[in-house]
Write a structure and sequence with these properties.
The longest helix has 24 residues. With 170 residues, the chain is of the alpha+beta class. It binds nickel (II) ion.
Length: 170
């Protein structure tokens, strides 16, 4: 599974609800965890692997968190917000401060289709909101003002070009 990067149309699509909870879905979940670990990320959403379905996975090993969210709905966010330096596997090597609510309540289904609710704060709450955005075709740079967003897009292109050159050399 390859992780889709900025510029890929699939990252801007609104994802569809999942209605079938079968082995194919479990396989997708497993592949997503594998791709996320390989890229050393803490979260990965369907469209990032080219699947426009409402699923994301989060794994924050230091906090013992590993959770799959299918058809998630954010039901409440705290009024209190905070800034945090966010990165995204679809924009490798870049990060930028993003303001978001500090706490979030979210309901979702697990990989078997069983509903659950999570009240999250800290990095977990941050990751949930970031990944949930992906299901609606929203990237973290979409939260920045236009000037900063453009600057980040240009930085991304520069980084990708540098990577290509480095690959050609070796
Ligand atoms: Ni992301």
């Amino acid at each position: 599974m390859t992780i889709r990067k900025l510029g890929d149309e699939v990252l801007h699509k609104k994802c569809e609800k999942i209605t079938v909870f079968d082995d194919e879905l479990k396989n997708l979940e497993e592949e997503m965890y594998k791709a996320m670990r390989k890229a050393e990320g803490i979260g990965l959403a369907g469209p990032q692997v080219g699947v426009t379905k409402r699923i994301f996975v989060i794994e924050i090993s230091e906090e013992g968190i590993k959770q799959t969210f299918v058809n998630p709905e954010i039901i409440e966010t705290s009024v209190e917000t905070g800034m945090y330096n966010e990165g995204c596997l679809s924009l490798p090597g870049l990060e930028h401060e993003v303001e978001r609510p500090l706490k979030v309540s979210i309901c979702a289904q697990d990989i078997e289709g069983k509903p659950f609710t999570v009240n999250a704060e800290g990095l977990f709450a941050r990751a949930i909101q970031h990944e949930n955005d992906h299901l609606n075709g929203i990237l973290y740079i979409d939260h920045l003002d236009q000037e900063e967003k453009t600057r980040m897009e240009q930085l991304f292109v520069k980084k990708q070009e540098a990577l290509k050159k480095a690959k050609r050399r070796h």
